[in-house]
Amino acid sequence: MTTTGTMAVVGIRTAQLLAAATLALVGMACSGSGSSGASNDTADSAPPGEAPLAVPPVGFQLKSTPVTMAPGEEQYLCWSFVLPSTTPLNVIATVPQVSAHGVHHYAVFTKSGALPANPNGYDCKVMDATWGLVAGGGVGTAGLTFPKGTAMTLAAGTQVVLQLHLLNATGAPEEPTGILNLIGSDEPNLTQVGLLIAGTLDINIPPHQSGFDVTGGCKAPFDMPNVFATFPHMHQLGTNIDVSLTPQGSTKPNTLVNRAWDFGSQGVYPVTGSAKAGDQVTVKCTYDNSTDGTVTFGEDTNNEMCIGVLFYYPLAPGGMGGLGGSNYCGI
Question: What is the pTM of this model?
Fold first, then answer.
């Protein structure tokens, strides 16, 4: 891992946890008019048997270019593009269309700096703290619609990355694909959405252990008056995940998510909750490790993670819509 400083290391690991996103600039539509940003055919990136997503009338579409994965191969690949320079994009929803097989997880990031020399399908396992998370999902995760009157605003001219964590677990070549629509809005005075990435990197699951618990989190770094969605994330050894908020001075948590973990069907779940700065944010993960070795935190599928991403509004002063120091909670 080639980074400098604690923040850069945490940024890399956290980003990869959700899979991240960089794709080829494909088509875009802002302020009600669409324009094409790439020559690759949208149909090429639709999963077999599915009609490709239409470019949103207001918003931006991200699309991967063709990739062939050999049996057992695992990669982090990204596609980068730039939002139109004329106006900010108020994102009010995300709509993914990714392969049911071959995609471990996906994510969308903002990124500062120049575009890479080859923006299509480049290796992006090493990232840094300039990558700002917008949204992500795992196997089977549906899109996310923000509450009415809210948005995550991306500045005009921002570099956006669609990252796919690809894994071919079959015995034959696969061609995983990804399309993701950032649905926009022209509505004025939208309340800004933020996110908090909670959990822990301190994972050491002993061999042949069942029901092994790992707990992470922190005291909330800022007020989160309206927590409306949670994206929990573990890997293949996970059996249950619990995300909760506990007010200061209380021992009774408000459980946001407590569910059996299914690696093959991961969701972004609507929740109702709130927290004040200093309240406890807790992510508890339970694992069964039937292997002969200790399993630790890592980006690869055979490693593990324990993460809960909380979406909230209004955006806290000092908070961000992407990765940032105040957005980390226990990691």
Answer: 0.81
